[in-house]
Amino acid sequence: MLQVKNLTIIHKKDLTTLVDGLTFILAPGDRAALIGEEGNGKSTVLKLLYDPALVEPYAEWTGEIVDRGLRKGWLAQELTPAELELPVWEFCRRSPAFEEADPKALDRAARQVGLSADLFWDDRPMSTLSGGERVKLRLALLMLDGPDVLLLDEPSNDLDVETLEWLETFLLGCKVPVLYISHDEALLERTANVVIHLERLRRRTVARCTVSRTGYGQYVEERSAGFERQEQQARKERAEYGAKMETYRRIHDSVEHQLVTVSRQNPGKGRLLKKKMHTVLSMGRRFEREKESMTALPEWEEAILTAFDEGRSAFPAGKTVLRLDLPELAAGDRVLARDVRLWVDGPEKIGIIGPNGAGKSTLLKLIADQLLPRTDLRAAYMPQDYGDLLLGERTPVEILAPSGWKEDVTRARTLLGNMKYKAEEMEHPAAGLSGGQRAKLLFLSMVLNGANVLVLDEPTRNFSPLSAPVIRRVLADFHGVIISVSHDRLYLEQVCTRALELTETGLRERL
Q: How many Å separate Cα 93 from the centre of its chain?
């Protein structure tokens, strides 16, 4: 059993409180989802629970972590560039448990995650494995060590639909407690039985932690209903208080006026009025005490807020956007698919799916290269890796307002504020921002540029499960064309008008 008592984490650079007073117990059978917006400290909590030395360079913490010698398995969010270049067998050999394991143990671990044990000895670089293969391989290495608890940072990133379904089965069948971060709402709804929610309120200056021993869907529903009840009660009490205070002020002003105008020849009446005023003031003090005990208005971390301009983003119905007839789709010398045919007319919303490694991102990049130079439409491209678009020292404000004009800068700051950027984040180099913050920045640039054709590679992958519904709603309401790759099952259901699967023999319609 892993126990956390009154954990508080403060960022050293700007003394921001990331987590305040977090307390929970992780017991056998628990599948605890750690949720919250980007920059709220989720990954930091996982690192701290695994090894405090991982957060020491940038964070200070107080509280107590009681693990009594638990063997902890930690899955980092990403592999380092150096790790990605390692051959698979060399990456595996860096795990002491792998070095000590006999063939039977290796075979058992591989079967547990649905891999062939031969993969452990593969000569290919780790970077050439699909996202699903990398996650499964790393989980197999963790399971070899016989962990008592698993700490998983975004295990669902870059997984195709089939592997996501495998991950659900793995989590549901896991015999040790699991604490994990995921942006995939379907995965959360189907697997989590504990929710740990990290929030940053009052313009991200106050941290709040909520621990609920319920499923994710139930937590969201009960949270919303609870806030609604609290707000109704708080507004009712404030209305009643306002009516009382109006009566109090009327009585007070009347007695005060009488006191001022009473005749000095009538001291008896003056004494009575002073006594009456004393009673009135006592009533006012009683009302003030009632005000202090009123139900507080609910506070929650505000959702991101953005939308496309309907007029600028509209695309004429039936107008040709793309006519792609590709005999071969290749990556280097490797042919990924043949006879790829994609015809898109306005205002369709296309979702392309397929297994990891099928060539979806390669196809989308090719489509972007065709559409971006065209002058008869305004295309925008969001790749899966934002680095190519956001390298350099430019800040978010400079990217959104390159002219430097006062009105453009003001608008950029307003939009960034709507996307929950703090003032200091607006002035940080964009290349150093988190994946979620960079995703928001690219999204805003598409809004500002009035794009009417969006080419999007995993558009929701870096948005929190509480912000992703906003992005899906904005894209569903978008009046232009969307050509996208996604493994987000809710995105495919709620946004896309057509779903196509990329296979070795081309694109196939999915019903």
A: 33
